[in-house]
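Researcher: I've got a protein sequence and the SMILES for fe (ii) ion. Could you write out the 3D structure of the bound complex as structure tokens? I'd like something to compare against our soaking experiments later this week.
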Amino acid sequence: MERITKIVENRRYKACLSEIKSLEKSRKFCKHNKKHFLDVARIAYILNLERKININKEIIYAAAFLHDIGRHKQYEEGIPHEKASAEIAPGILMDSGFSAEEINDIVNAIEEHRQNHGKTSALGKIIYEGDKLSRKCFSCKVKKKCNWKEDKKNNTIKY
Ligand SMILES: [Fe+2]
Ligand SMILES: [Fe+2]
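Model: Sure. Here is the predicted complex with fe (ii) ion in place.
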């Protein structure tokens, strides 16, 4: 998991996270921080094991740790964050030692993480599901005000 440590220590990665942190200071809804990324990574990895999909662990963690990394651009510039994250991720992945083919799969899954349909890749699907399953909608005080559709909300504990 050396390359995941490299992502977390990456300068651009840290800069994006601190920008997101300051922009989400007064946010009542779920935040987008390392805790969220780790939750998504672990759940996606459990799904990978349960379903015997056999995607490499570092690839899953890389996608999970980068899927929301452009969130600040959504707040600041109105760019959908899956697009912003897909733009920021390649440089960080390259600096962390991922190959062009791996980067392609990871960035694709980042772009896919807000929708789950027939064409979504196997990696995109487990990141999408891990993203939803990581949220504590079952005990959320602002659930009624949240703009997530009812079918996306994690109303029961599964993982
Ligand atoms: Fe997201
Ligand atoms: Fe997320």
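Model: The mean pLDDT is 96. Residues 5 and 105 are 19 Å apart (CA to CA).
Researcher: Great, I'll pass this along to the crystallography team.
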